[in-house]
Amino acid sequence: MLSFEPYGNPTYFALLGVALLPLMIGLLYGKRSRLYETLISIFFLVLTFGGPKWTQGVALIIYILYEVALTWGYAVYRKRQNSGPIFYLMVILAIIPLTIVKVTPAVENGQASLIGFLGVSYLTFRAVQTMMETRDGTLKDYQVMTFLQFMLFFPTISSGPIDRYRRFEADYRSVPDREKYLGMIQKGIRYIFVGFLYKFILAYYFGTMLMPKLQVMAMHSRGGFLDLSWPVLGYMYAYSADLFFDFAGYSLFAVGTSYIMGIATPMNFNHPWRSPNIKDFWNRWHITLSFWFRDFIYMRLVFWFMKHKVFKKPTTTANVTYIINMLVMGFWHGVTWYYITYGLFHGCALVINDTWLRYKKKHRASVPHNGFTQVFAIFLTANMVCFSFLIFSGMLDKLWFH
Amino acid sequence: MDIKETVLGILNDLTGNDVSGAMDDNLFDSGLLDSMGSVQLLLQLQGDLGINVPVSEFERSEWDTPNKIIAKVESLA
Predict the structure, then answer these.
(1) Which residues of chain A have pLDDT under 50?
(2) Cβ contacts of B40 on chain A, cutoff 8 Å
(3) Active site residue A271
(4) Which domain holds residue B71?
């Protein structure tokens, strides 16, 4: 039986093109066929989770039923009552499967959990967000079928971008007018072609051609200060380039395919290497993830801390929450020392960055701002980020402990 | 005191700037407001005007200039 990584090879794209054609014609004539969309979603989900990966498919089905039960149950409950402890309990229940998937390899010598499947994190983000908006009362009209379409929307199921229930629903319930839709097709196709360049040419070059060679050289050049060497530096840049082109390429495929389906899934990257500071970097890198963390962890924690006057100074509140926020992000990547260090690194970087921005605001007259400082800021930020990706890559783990 | 004055007062306190001269400038782009500032703004609105805005109602693009914030608050008051 056929089985694919999403967007993994030319056959997948050929099938995608054929499957999307009737849908495009429908949308051009102002019609959205729910039945057809559901059928092709199931088709591509079976391609991704069927055949040799059927155990993942079973895990996905059980997981989805579980999350539907929780979000639906909570939506029904929330119409009548609104107790804090029940809400927290429901959120904990919703993240239990993800927690098991993330912790299992750390305690079972790298063995993957049986309940895991490709995309479990991204689905958990969507489910938790749906619950939080239900709690806030911003999401009043929860519908099981819409929730299922939102969760199982095949272009973004494996690695995002992480859409929001209400935004998705608005697109899904309407049909763009012809002029707007033609614009979306044009954009969608362009995104997919830029994605080809990123994923199949640039990421291939950096990730498949360059990185393994640099890794071998780096392992042979051990012995110096902290086992660091020029090949390690080369590896750092090659890994960063690979990470960006691979994930940005994938994201372009996912967003492009969504656009062709008349759904404006939000973009994941916005010129991250032009960021003049770390704070700005997180507004441009893996945007739907960092905004999810911003809206559902950072802002909520800050709100709670300030409402309960936990810290005297607002800056302390902000700093503590930065660290917590990024540590959670680190743990989410996986329970290894390098992912957690990566999170801590970015938390500290945000604290330092914020302190600097406050200082700059206060001493606006004496801090120079010109073309040179701008270029320097971009250079410094990009290098700090690449260094954090070296930690993230696990290369230091290999250098030091293997 | 009317809503406009109250909101401007809160914004001036939060940003450390007089924003009344640039009512359509994007406060996030200029770095005057960030996530932390947004939460402080929501709490102040709650305290001073009794307006409850849940965090998930806070869509950044609807709250990014002084004029938009005033309009938003007026619609909620």
Answers:
(1) none
(2) 306, 314
(3) no
(4) 3-17+25-76
